[in-house]
Design goal:
It is a single chain. α3 packs across α4. It is built from 8 helices and 10 strands. The protein is α/β, with parallel strands linked by helices. A 5-stranded parallel β-sheet has the order 3-2-4-1-5, with helices on both faces. Strands 6-7-10-8-9 form a 5-stranded mixed β-sheet, with helices on both faces. The chain folds into 2 domains: 112 residues, Tetrapyrrole methylase, N-terminal domain (Cobalt-precorrin-4 Transmethylase, domain 1); 105 residues, Tetrapyrrole methylase, C-terminal domain (Methyltransferase, Cobalt-precorrin-4 Transmethylase, Domain 2).
């Protein structure tokens, strides 16, 4: 079996506030772990296991090949129980773990998940924009003309979500303000679950009149195309 383990949005937060008790109970029972980034994975494990030196650990990221993916499934084919951890938030969402889950589905190996923090879901809940129909785009095109054309082609009737690395947060915000219609709503949600959390939603025309830049912080942007 594979267990999809939640991770914190703030690595310094108290996990008791965000994880169900079942997460803490299952982690010491697992035979091995699959991490996106080993350093972050080991730091996570030390919250729950005193000695992690002899625990099998593997890596799954965007560079993992199909052959390496198959090797990850072998312990579970033998009956072992492993955990999959993303760098932040929930596995699979904006995370390369989906390919592993698909492999396990084909092998009829069960996968179990847990509730936990997700910046995508939190941002939707806090933005005030419709969550009836939404699309997460991940990273948008970086070149100005490609971004303008991409935004222009997006269908109406949806809430669109995207992210950027923290050092590009303000740059993307400026571009969205420039290329989205004045009548569209644009929401920025940053530092979610941190003491400095903020969410600001207003029409693009209002963003232009009263700019609000965020600095180098992790953020999610949500917008419609009206």
């Amino acid at each position: 079996m594979l267990y999809l383990l939640p991770n914190l949005l703030d690595e310094n937060a108290d996990h008791d506030l965000f994880f169900p008790r079942s997460v803490q109970q299952i982690i010491p029972q697992l035979d091995g772990f699959i991490f996106e980034t080993p350093k972050k994975g080991r730091k996570f494990l030390k919250r729950f296991i005193q000695n992690i030196q002899d625990i099998p650990m593997r890596v799954l990221n965007v560079h993992t090949t199909s052959e390496e993916m198959h090797l990850l499934t072998i312990p579970m084919q033998k009956g072992e129980k492993w955990g999959l951890l993303a760098d932040i938030g929930l596995p699979i969402l904006a995370d390369p773990g989906a390919a592993l889950v698909l492999c396990l589905q084909k092998l009829h190996i069960p996968v179990h998940t847990f509730p936990g923090p997700s910046s995508i879901i939190y941002a939707l809940q806090l933005s005030g924009l419709s969550a009836q129909s939404f699309t997460f785009h991940g990273y948008l095109p970086r070149k100005d003309e490609e971004l303008r054309l991409f935004l222009h082609a997006l269908p109406g009737g949806y809430t669109h979500l995207c992210i950027e690395p923290p050092y590009r947060t303000d740059l993307l915000l400026k571009k969205l303000i420039t290329y989205l219609p004045n009548s569209a709503y644009l929401s920025a949600a940053w530092n979610l679950t941190l003491p400095t959390q903020g969410v600001l939603t207003k029409k693009v025309a209002h963003w232009k009149k009263t700019p609000h830049f965020l600095g180098k912080v992790p953020a999610i942007f949500l917008f419609n195309t009206k």
